[in-house]
Amino acid sequence: AAKADGGRHRRYDGDLDDRAGEEARLGAELRTALDAGEFHLVYQPIVELPYGNVVAVESLVRWWNPERGYVGPDVFIPVAERTGLIVELGEWILRTACRQYAQWWRQGVAPHRFGVNVSARQLAEPGFVDLVAAVLAETGVHPARLVVEVTETAVFGGGAAVRAVRELTELGVEIALDDFGTGHSSLGLLQTLPVRVLKVDKSFVENVTMAGRHAVIATSLIQVANGLGLVAVAEGVETAEQAAELYRIGYRRAQGYHFGRPAMAQLTTAEQVAA
Ligand code: C2E
Ligand code: CA
Ligand code: CA
Ligand code: CA
């Protein structure tokens, strides 16, 4: 038995080493990938219910590597956070999204607003708000057009991240609380943070057409948002039935495959649609 346990123990350590090794490799490759221009952004529409007219877009980062193929942001963003590359990658994302928005604006096809995801580490980084102000000035984008999407966990610790949120608001930038309802202190945060948009997590949207806990929570969250004068966006809407039910219980904003998948910028401009 001792021998078997010993074997299992060694195997377990081996897995850990493999995982640590893979993480280190991925971290190093991300660095190279940024310099090699392997990242790009896609944009997903956020629509108004019930008609589905586009009112905003959310930018989402994509990484295509010749050897690995596509790697999802759920995989590489946490690694970039741990290595610190997220600060530089995040700056690239912000600048690229702002440049794209400025181009849409010049072409007369800009949606009302555009969202950029900002991770915890980026938000707490000294100089982040100055960077946002500089990139907006450099690209000529009005601050009120930008929505910075932050997760509850990013602002949970308070301190630098909360200060950054306040300063961004003073700048005129809007703040959206992402994955709302999945964190530890969703409602508590609303008492102190100058948030204007709640992005209601897709886990509550998924089962909204069935009587049950998720539908009750989705209903409660829209009531909280309306009561506080906030905008709630239902995330991950995949069917017409979900959209209809969300509208019925009071949602006026939605995002999801039913309305549009994340797509390259060129495909979303009016010129391309007309062509
Ligand atoms: P998120 O900010 O909650 O983004 C929404 C995710 O849901 C996106 O996944 C999007 O493609 C996906 N999605 C949209 N509609 C539907 C739907 O109808 N059904 C389903 N099942 N999924 C839908 P994605 O692009 O893989 O991004 C995953 C997460 O990675 C994001 O979650 C965000 O936390 C992070 N992320 C993505 N882009 C960036 C970025 O530029 N910067 C940072 N810091 N994080 C990012
Ligand atoms: Ca988001
Ligand atoms: Ca989300
Ligand atoms: Ca998410």
From TrEMBL:
Residue ranges of domain EAL in the record: 23-275
Name used for this protein in its record: EAL domain-containing protein
Organism listed in the record: Actinoplanes flavus
Lineage: Bacteria, Bacillati, Actinomycetota, Actinomycetes, Micromonosporales
Part of the whole protein covered: 436 to 710 of 710
